[in-house]
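Page 42, continued from yesterday. The earlier attempt failed because a stray header line got pasted into the input along with the sequence. Redoing it now with the clean sequence only.
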Amino acid sequence: MNKAIFLDRDGVLFDNSEHYYIWKSDQLKIVDGTVENLKMLIQKGFQLFIISNQGGISRGLYSKNDIEKLHEELIQTFRKNDIEITEIAFCPHHPEIEKCLCRKPDSLMIEKLMAKYKISKTDSYLIGDSKSDMDAAEKIGIQGIKIIPNQNMFPYLSFLNK
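This time it went through. Structure tokens are written below.
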């Protein structure tokens, strides 16, 4: 079984203090320390996954294609820094418009990734900045690590010393 880190996108990897919905390149500001922290996680043997609610798609604010284009840009940016993101999963639904099982706090996005990549629950973590992130981690049975939004996650990575 493989071990993984599931990372919420906005507020954890991207600074969302100026934009609630991030879907364009010019809105993309990576949180300080992210590159160094992700390299450290990879060195400890973790696969990296990004999981994100993208309700703006359902609301018609931007398209699925817009998000996929932004995610491809993000993957290329990380690759240039020797960081491999195994996969990015996102939920396009908004709870005021339709119900689904993939949107955090539900756990279907994570469950699918865990099955596809044979991920160990006991050796994996979800790093997020909201209660819905922590609820999703609890539902799937992995440890959730709640960080302060838009701040370097390094102080929260003490589990690496185990």
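Notes: The mean pLDDT is 94.
Reminder to self: strip header lines before submitting.
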